[in-house]
Amino acid sequence: xxxxxxxxxxxxxxxxxxxxxxxxxxxxxxxxxxxxxxxxxxxxxxxxxxxxxxxxxxxxxxxxxxxxxxxxxxxxxxxxxxxxxxxxxxxxxxxxxxxxxxxxxxxxxxxxxxxxxxxxxxxxxxxxxxxxxxxxxxxxxxxxxxxxxxxxxxxxxxxxxxxxxxxxxxxxxxxxxxxxxxxxxxxxxxxxxxxxxxxxxxxxxxxxxxxxxxxxxxxxxxxxxxxxxxxxxxxxxxxxxxxxxxxxxxxxxxxxxxxxxxxxxxxxxxxxxxxxxxxxxxxxxxxxxxxxxxxxxxxxxxxxxxxxxxxxxxxxxxxxxxxxxxxxxxxxxxxxxxxxxxxxxxxxxxxxxxxxxxxxxxxxxxxxxxxxxxxxxxxxxxxxxxxxxxxxxxxxxxxxxxxxxxxxxxxxxxxxxxxxxxxxxx
Length: 426
Description:
The protein has 2 domains: 3-202, NAD(P)-binding Rossmann-like Domain (Rossmann fold, 3-Layer(aba) Sandwich), CATH 3.40.50.720; 287-425, NAD(P)-binding Rossmann-like Domain (Rossmann fold), CATH 3.40.50. 40% of the residues lie in helices and 15% in strands. It has helices spanning 13-21, 33-40, 51-56, 92-103, 121-134, 172-183, 196-227, 231-238, 260-270, 277-286, 288-302, 331-340, 354-361, 384-387, 391-395, 413-418; strands at 3-7, 25-29, 60-63, 74-77, 110-113, 143-146, 165-169, 190-192, 311-315, 344-348, 374-379, 398-406, 422-425.
């Protein structure tokens, strides 16, 4: 019977470990004792995996003890691949996990990487570490596959088993085994790529394409704002054509879309090619927090409000709606820019952990009832809780002649106009 190990029990690794743990003896490994303690109580603090699902994974054991990996025939590595401050790939989690796996590698094991990387990274970065640390030979003593993660945090409909899984292997035999193992839990099916590099490239362009499409919408939003027309109205009109793609402008953050393109551009530059379109999209998206803040300040000035020490409420801090993940949230760009004008920014988020917000960004979250009356409200993230608020519940938090910035075009602008409140939306 195959024993499976999952290294890294975050948004990607835990759902996989739980699904495998329903059918196979599965070892879940993570460096965080706090996570392990929580999972042993059948609680996922992120809300991605339900208590019932954790309980149903009766063959799953979780641990911080690396030696347990020695029992695994099939090891899945699902660790983050961030970028540093210079937008260069930060391979430290991947290097660390490969080192750990290499030191605890069973003879004949298959190691499958799920982390997003540039094409070639698995073979250039990971495999040499596995060989060095294990003293074993690739394709003789161990084998390697790649199957990019496609987790969509916060999405309860498209869960891990319901998304087609791209799989690859270093030999035809490895590919067949990877297909078999993943195919046993992925009900949507698996798609075999011809080789590891193709699978790596497929993943990195999924998010690069989305990043560029949003960048186009963001640039259009800037242009339409200067023209004086509403971006959403333009997109709704254009959307009546069958082949117009339904992308919307917004703040592009998180650990995927705003990060993955830099892995591809890094590889391109190493090969002597300077990618222009991809980096142009990144520049536009990285500048949208500043743009949103500037429009808010302009509205306040037009409404006659002084800016210095002026309370401004920002609703939402996480990188996407109804998801507690704060990593690489671009809402912080809006906050910092508003603060640079001297405004007193107060932040509320119903799903983020207060301790994490303080640790990650130095932001102290405020409960709804304790929010002050403000000259402006920036609705940065369209959490479900905000969608249920009435117009009067918003206006109750505003000073006279207060204004609202609606980043995700969530609000009914007509209702606010009738209430005498100016709403600007991206």
